[in-house]
Design goal:
alpha+beta, 4-stranded antiparallel β-sheet, DUF1840 domain-containing protein, elongated, DUF1840
Length: 108
């Protein structure tokens, strides 16, 4: 199922429900049928999401040494998309909403 986040300060952001649930959980909310991230909650939400992205990047950097691409006997490994790539549109919306003192809603 697709979840659409709406905000007057940014274009709509659509994502699959499992990713939306994960990202909304990071910022301290629950993905219900309807929801809102109030403009006064955005500072904390942005900080939490940026921190999670930073942690993910650090973990990915530590694991980069585990891929032996190009070595004999090792096949090419597809590196999965990281949190930064998945979360960027949502983070961008959070930042735009913060600048405009706008709320972010879903399910309406």
């Amino acid at each position: 199922m697709l979840i659409t986040f709406k905000c007057r300060a940014a274009p709509d952001v659509m994502m699959l429900e499992n990713l939306a649930q994960y990202l909304v959980g990071i910022v301290g909310k629950r993905l219900g049928e309807r929801g809102v991230i109030m403009h006064d909650e955005l500072d904390v939400a942005i900080t939490k999401l940026e921190s999670a992205i930073s942690s993910d990047k650090q973990e990915r950097a530590e694991h980069d040494g585990h891929f032996h691409e190009g070595e004999d006997g090792h096949e090419h490994h597809e590196i999965p998309i990281g949190l930064a790539q998945r979360a960027f549109p949502f983070l961008d919306m959070l930042r735009a909403a913060q600048k405009e003192n706008a709320d972010i809603v879903w399910g309406i």
